[in-house]
Amino acid sequence: MQENKPISRVFTSNSVVLPGHDEPVPATVLVDTWTGKITDVRHGLAVRSDYPDADWLDAGDHIILPGLVDAHVHLNEPGRTDWEGFWTGTRAAASGGVTTLIDMPLNSIPPTTTIANLEQKKAAARGQCWTDVGFWGGVIPGNQAHLKSLVEAGVKGFKCFLIESGVEEFPCVAASDLDGAMKELEGTSSVLCFHAELETEHNHPPQRTSADPTLYETFLHSRPQSLETAAIELITRLHAQHPTLRLHIVHLSASDALPLIRAARASGLPLTVETCFHYLTLDATSIPNGHPEFKCCPPIREAPNRDALWDALKKGEIDCVVSDHSPCVAELKKVDVGDVMGAWGGISTLGLGLSLLWTEGKKRGVHIKDIVKWCCEKTAEHAGLQNTKGTIAAGYDADLIVWDPQANVHVTKESLNFKNKLTPYEGLTLQGRVLKTFLRGHLVYDSVEGFRGEPIGQLL
Ligand SMILES: [Zn+2]
């Protein structure tokens, strides 16, 4: 029927990041905005007269790359919507070139631990999303009977904690809970993700009751690398008993754990690892005291640790990079009193990740292709979206961003699109700016004109 005829959109640029190329190449991407899919990718530039009926975008020398897939985000709605929400969180994401995000199962009330709770999350999200949104489920003590039905309902995998999570409705699991959960998930294509910090009688850091709670060093001392290595020892031991199940370490901070991860992977276990923008760009010794905006768990560590994480990332021993955007209200972040020990742990990043990684990565010989691998391809694969997201190729969703690698971004409160404008990056000038973000072929964000159209994001 005539009214259903696809309206095509053509993207052409001297620099398109395509699979199989080490550098961006001149190319033309043809999109059917009716289906939201890329229909074809052609090498070389197109001229407008070739496609007289199409909407046309000539990005010139600006780079076209796939939208980012941020596989670790806390949107907190419903229940803690004053911390963050689908509307503000996905707008912040879109402004930074993220076109898909996967929401973590905790900090909303209820947590995503049953089908009924997942339905509540979806109902809260509908009509509010400026990016596509998928959901992780949660493993908590006693919910293992719900796991298979959550897989069937489309959750991308599961998250659990080995140490207290910070919210009472999402308790941590013991090894005995995990054995049952892993048996339930064996044979599925799902993935079980671990917040990998574990206190044991041997690694519990001594209490420093007299220590100043506003010093970053006090907090860093309370969460040593040994908490992460103890957790990862347990995880790899359990993994050997369930060797077909995919396991994943979220937000790795401790480089001391890398040998354990290397050994597990060398033995053939399907274990993947993510780290975060903040562990790669910040350094504990430069963190000002009295600033809980820098607090997250596990903590940001010293520069040599950061260098080791970069090294592992470049070697492929760490698979991907995510935000772990985990905000809260100012009162709980205790910014007025600078109480680092008492503050909520979580860093707000949505919208800044690509510029952060580019600014720091350029000093370390990183190419845009590497960032696409870590933040698009590998994160899509982690969430089971490798056939639709994270790559510019025919048949994939037309999630595309236009990126100016030279332009500066000055981070001010006014420039942030997430709800609570508390971030360790305020005041920084970063390099690389997202000019336009397209979701399924439709413009959703323009750096000059702001958000465009409707929240057309789908629930994945
Ligand atoms: Zn998290």
TrEMBL record:
Its cofactor is Zn(2+). The keyword Metal-binding applies. Pfam families: Amidohydro_1 (PF01979). Its EC number is 3.5.2.5. GO terms for cellular component: cytoplasm. Residues 63-444 form the Amidohydrolase-related domain. Pathway: Nitrogen metabolism; (S)-allantoin degradation; allantoate from (S)-allantoin: step 1/1. GO terms for biological process: allantoin catabolic process; purine nucleobase catabolic process. Keywords: Hydrolase, Metal-binding, Zinc. It is an enzyme of class 3 (hydrolase). SUPFAM superfamilies: Composite domain of metallo-dependent hydrolases, Metallo-dependent hydrolases. It comes from the Eukaryota. GO terms for molecular function: allantoinase activity; cobalt ion binding; zinc ion binding. The keyword Metal-binding applies. InterPro entries: Allantoinase, Amidohydro-rel, DHOase/Allantoinase_Hydrolase, Dihydroorotase_CS, Metal-dep_hydrolase_composite, Metal_Hydrolase. PROSITE patterns: DIHYDROOROTASE_1. It catalyses: (S)-allantoin + H2O = allantoate + H(+). NCBIfam families: allantoinase. Homotetramer. Belongs to the metallo-dependent hydrolases superfamily. Allantoinase family. This is allantoinase. It comes from Steccherinum ochraceum.
